[in-house]
């Protein structure tokens, strides 16, 4: 059934929405919002990781001269070794963030699965917890 279709009277389940049901529906909605945020953050950090990896590769092919590293809005002159160390530290930092966001999205999806089972069991097709087309 498409998410935009109206239910017929026979398909509707006449069940009273208890406070716990409403709390579960609200939790599902909050989790869904956070899931979208976490996925966006993860994608942004993965892009930064890719650029940092490219920068590290460029540094490895350098000639040993001083290079400029961007810190905030300023460029700082430093040795290739210092720049490589900084780059590797940033890669490690961003990889940890990506890993943490992946773990968070997995936990959110697991909890949403539990809530879907409970809510669909209670309300049947009268409730729609699926994503619509983007």
List keywords for this structure.
7% strand; single chain; two-stranded antiparallel sheet
Beta-strand share of residues: 5-15%
Oligomeric state of this protein: single chain
Q: What is the CA-CA span between the terminal residues?
A: 17 Å
Order of helices and strands: HEEH
Summing up helix and strand content along with how strands pair, one would put the structural category as mainly alpha
The number of helical runs is 2
Overall pLDDT: 88
Main beta-sheet strand count, sense and barrel state = 2 strands, antiparallel
Which value, in Å, is the CA radius of gyration? 24 Å
Shape: rod-shaped
- Helical fraction: 55-70%
Describe the protein.
This protein is mostly helical. The protein has a two-stranded antiparallel ribbon with strand order 1-2. Helices cover 64% and strands 7% of the residues. A hairpin with a 2-residue loop joins strand 1 (67-71) and strand 2. The chain is rod-shaped. The model has no long low-confidence stretch (mean pLDDT 88). Helix 1 packs antiparallel against helix 2 (80-123).
Task: Draw up the topology in text.
Layout: H1 19-60, E1 67-71, E2 74-78, H2 80-123
Helix pairs in contact: 1-2
Quick description:
By secondary structure, the protein is mainly alpha-helical.
